[in-house]
Specification:
The structure is a single chain. The protein is of the alpha+beta class and about 260 residues long. It has five helices and 15 strands. It has a five-stranded mixed beta sheet. Strand 8 and strand 9 form a beta hairpin. Keywords: Cell outer membrane, Ion transport, Lipoprotein, Membrane, Palmitate, Polysaccharide transport, Porin, Signal, Sugar transport, Transmembrane, Transmembrane beta strand, Transport.
Length: about 260
């Protein structure tokens, strides 16, 4: 299933790349822009937007373009060139060559954690794909932390269920400084007379028999009779439960496999 999700994520990323356009971008501090004026190659400029949102452009000096979408910034520079009497009806184009102002953090159990620019519209799945998808220890759920109008919100998204059901309306659009955090998947433990005792990822609806298979099966001395589950109750005390093959495991359960007496 994990491999399927990876492939689907990669496909969505490819589609998203196609949908996004530079015109969707809002310019901000730290962005590097390349500006050209048709017919006036001497005015061509590549510059970084200052923290105050300004750039310095030939002939017109300081121009505030931070917070504007690209078409609006193009019109503003063109208007200033025209109204200043420098060029009549200039055609200005802006290309963003480096985005620093609009970034999302993807952290936790992904293959390439880091900060990624929002080029056009980007959703949670887009960003997970850019981060290389979840790694082998990643959980099915991700936490999305957003700050809007001074209020921080936290939301849990079930990525696998989203893909299975096709309910992509939960694949919300992101904004600058949003955080996606992929937690480590829940685990179970198995020991005793199994080939590979240890800690393993707990899959959904995983049974005791499936856990035994994940542990490599029985050793020559092991038996499926008398298996036990050790589980903490609400008070944190360990409870020992006689295990049946189709019992469902819970997070942090410990499965013990006995040695056969015969």
């Amino acid at each position: 299933m994990k491999r399927l999700v990876m492939w689907v994520l990669a496909g969505l990323m490819t589609l998203a790349m196609g949908w996004a356009t530079a015109a969707d971008a809002t310019l901000g501090a730290g962005d590097v822009v390349k500006i050209a004026v048709y017919g006036s190659p001497d005015l061509g400029t590549e510059t970084r937007i200052s923290q105050s949102g300004n750039i310095t452009f030939p002939l017109i000096g300081q121009v505030k373009i931070g917070g504007l979408e690209i078409p609006a910034a193009e019109r503003k520079i063109a208007s200033m060139l025209d109204s200043g009497g420098f060029i009549k009806k200039p055609q200005v184009t802006i290309l963003v060559t480096a985005i620093s102002s609009q970034q999302v953090s993807v952290l936790g159990q992904v293959n390439r954690p880091g900060r990624f620019p929002i080029e056009g519209k980007r959703t949670v799945l887009d960003m997970l794909a850019l981060a290389g998808g979840m790694n082998i220890d990643g959980a099915d759920n991700v936490t999305l932390i957003r700050k809007r109008n001074g209020t921080v919100t936290k939301e849990t998204l079930d990525i696998v269920e989203m893909m299975r059901s096709g309910e992509l309306q939960r694949d919300v659009e992101l904004a600058a400084d949003d955080i996606i955090y992929v937690e480590r998947a829940p685990r179970f433990y198995i020991y005793g007379e199994v080939q590979r005792p240890g800690a393993f990822k707990l899959e959904r609806s995983m049974t005791v028999l499936q856990a035994l298979a994940v542990g490599g099966g029985l050793t020559p001395r092991g038996t499926e009779r008398g298996m036990r589950i050790k589980r903490r109750d609400a008070q944190g005390k360990i409870q020992v439960i006689d295990a049946k093959h189709d019992d469902l495991l819970q997070t942090d359960d410990i499965v013990y496999v006995k040695e056969s007496l015969f």
